[in-house]
């Protein structure tokens, strides 16, 4: 049996949307009196809006709804996270269990191990979030949970937990797109941030440039054709023999402070491609070659035992890598600003979020791009840039208030229910100018984009 939270691939988009992004408000209202007051204000959002009114309504969708209490659950990758957030954006709690030991041991995320670690941590993490918020499940208005993109095995742990709570306490569920959550948490930290805005989302698995036109509606200006920047930081840190228990990115950022960023001439990727796509696989290889050609025994000698000269060489590689990695971001972001302003001249904000956005060098350089173009940079504090439960709860709140959520699971739903998840789930369609000849998009088993679902849910 497949849950209605996650529709089967064979469903046409319009039907899938009805199942997936929310039960219509009317049918829900009848058996959920608790939510009547929220829905009264949200119901206007369920009728098909004109393009102009979308902007106004988007700002109205951040209400002072202190009574709304959302639990957010995130298990898409290597962090088990949960948080309780009020409808007005007050963060009541956040709890997180990271799998750093596993990352060190396996050199990356091993899906089966990650699944087990999530399964071991999830009950405690959710309980801690509830305890720290001083609430119980029965106080919640709804549960938001990441349903993609990410590793199916890992996503399933969070969805299973969310449905269990929702079933017992008769709560609606909001299925959240992980990358949308990275973008939208910026609206929690900056209440002036309204649509349309440009967003760069940089994490371990994704490099996305999107134009956010409205809640759930994105134009994808660029993506990576191979690796994401976070993957390049992580591998480089590992190859340089750094202590990656707190993450490869932070370790490399720290060492780079000691190095000369101009000491090694790494090539900036994709300069010949006049688009907004990214590529970090080649830069990774350049780092590997730089280490090998200098005969640094980084596999055997960790940085803590390196000689002063060896440490300086490693720091130079780290700093030079970081300079070029970020220069590549700057190139693509400058072009994306131009494209975005052509489509939406009213844009005022440039959002930078995702784990890599917690890097101070990255933030400073992208702030420069924002200022140069008369935009305001909005980047959440580091703890909200890396994976967390708050961003899921907040995105759940935004969709919930827009009327996109699912009914509580039926009381007889079996505990071993198999849910269909969305490991590969685009945020939006590609901007036509952005199609790179070098793109080799694997299209198998990709779900309809969030944007196409949002749009068809209105029809
Ligand atoms: O968003 P995130 O927490 O998880 C994913 O969705 O992937 O991003 C994790 C990525 C990792 O590659 C991590 O090394 C990177 O973000 N990261 C950083 C920094 N902090 C985290 N990269 C560079 N500098 C940092 N300070
Ligand atoms: Zn993430």
Automatic annotation (TrEMBL):
Cofactor(s), names only, from the UniProt record: a divalent metal cation
Localization of this protein: Mitochondrion
Pfam families, per the entry: TsaD
Region described as Disordered: 405-459
Tree of life domain: Eukaryota
Transit peptide keyword on record: yes
Cofactor note: Binds 1 divalent metal cation per subunit.
Biased composition (Acidic residues): 409-418
The keyword Oxidoreductase belongs to this UniProt entry's keyword annotation: no
Main location: mitochondrion
Residues in Gcp-like domain copies: 90-394
Record field: catalytic activity: L-threonylcarbamoyladenylate + adenosine(37) in tRNA = N(6)-L-threonylcarbamoyladenosine(37) in tRNA + AMP + H(+)
GO BP, one annotated term: tRNA threonylcarbamoyladenosine modification
Keywords linked to the UniProt accession: Acyltransferase, Metal-binding, Mitochondrion, Transferase, Transit peptide, tRNA processing
InterPro entries in the record: ATPase_NBD, Gcp-like_dom, KAE1/TsaD, TsaD
Gene Ontology cellular component terms for the protein in this record: mitochondrion
Polar residues: bias regions: 449-459
Primary role: Required for the formation of a threonylcarbamoyl group on adenosine at position 37 (t(6)A37) in mitochondrial tRNAs that read codons beginning with adenine. Probably involved in the transfer of the threonylcarbamoyl moiety of threonylcarbamoyl-AMP (TC-AMP) to the N6 group of A37. Involved in mitochondrial genome maintenance.
Subunit description: Homodimer.
Similarity annotation: Belongs to the KAE1 / TsaD family.
Protein name: Glycoprotease 1
Species of provenance: Aegilops tauschii subsp. strangulata
Name of the encoding gene: GCP1
């Amino acid at each position: 049996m497949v849950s209605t939270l996650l529709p089967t691939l064979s469903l046409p988009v319009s039907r899938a949307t009805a199942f997936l992004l929310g039960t219509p408000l009317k049918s829900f209202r009848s058996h959920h009196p608790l939510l009547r007051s929220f829905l009264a204000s949200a119901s206007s959002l369920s009728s098909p809006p004109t393009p102009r009114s979308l902007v106004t309504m988007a700002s109205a969708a951040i209400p002072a709804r202190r009574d709304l209490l959302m639990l957010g659950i995130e298990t898409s990758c290597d962090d088990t996270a949960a948080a309780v957030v009020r409808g007005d954006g007050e963060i009541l709690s956040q709890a997180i269990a990271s799998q750093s030991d596993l990352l060190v041991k396996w050199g990356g995320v091993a899906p089966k191990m990650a699944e087990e670690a999530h399964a071991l941590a999830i009950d405690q993490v959710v309980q801690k979030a509830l305890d720290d918020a001083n609430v119980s499940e029965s106080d919640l208005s709804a549960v938001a949970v990441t349903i993609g993109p990410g590793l199916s095995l890992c996503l399933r742990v969070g969805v299973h937990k969310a449905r269990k709570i929702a079933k017992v306490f008769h709560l609606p569920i909001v299925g959240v797109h992980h990358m949308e959550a990275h973008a939208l948490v910026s609206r929690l930290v900056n209440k002036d941030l309204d649509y349309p805005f440009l967003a760069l989302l940089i994490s371990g698995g994704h490099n996305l440039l999107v134009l956010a036109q409205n809640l759930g509606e994105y134009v994808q200006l660029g993506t990576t054709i191979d690796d994401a920047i976070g993957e390049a930081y992580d591998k480089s840190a590992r190859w340089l023999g750094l202590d990656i228990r707190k993450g490869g990115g932070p370790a490399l950022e720290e060492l780079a402070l000691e190095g000369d960023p101009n000491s090694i001439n790494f090539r900036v990727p994709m300069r010949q491609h006049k688009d907004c796509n990214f590529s970090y696989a080649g830069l990774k290889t350049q780092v590997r070659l730089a280490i090998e050609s200098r005969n640094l025994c980084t596999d055997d000698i960790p940085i803590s035992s390196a000689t002063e000269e060896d440490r300086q060489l490693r720091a130079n590689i780290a700093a030079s890598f970081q300079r070029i990695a970020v220069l590549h971001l700057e190139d693509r972001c400058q072009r994306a600003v131009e494209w975005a302003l052509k489509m939406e001249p009213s844009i005022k904000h440039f959002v930078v979020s995702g784990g890599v956005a917690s890097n101070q060098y990255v933030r400073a350089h992208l702030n420069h791009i924002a200022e140069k173009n008369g935009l305001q940079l909005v980047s959440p504090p580091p703890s909200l840039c890396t994976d967390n439960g708050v961003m899921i709860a907040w995105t759940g709140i935004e969709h919930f208030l827009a009327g996109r959520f699912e009914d509580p699971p039926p009381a007889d739903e079996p505990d071993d229910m198999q849910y269909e998840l969305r490991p590969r789930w685009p945020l939006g369609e590609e901007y036509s100018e952005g199609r790179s000849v070098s793109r080799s998009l694997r299209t198998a088993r990709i779900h309809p984009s969030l944007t196409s679902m949002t749009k068809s849910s209105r029809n």
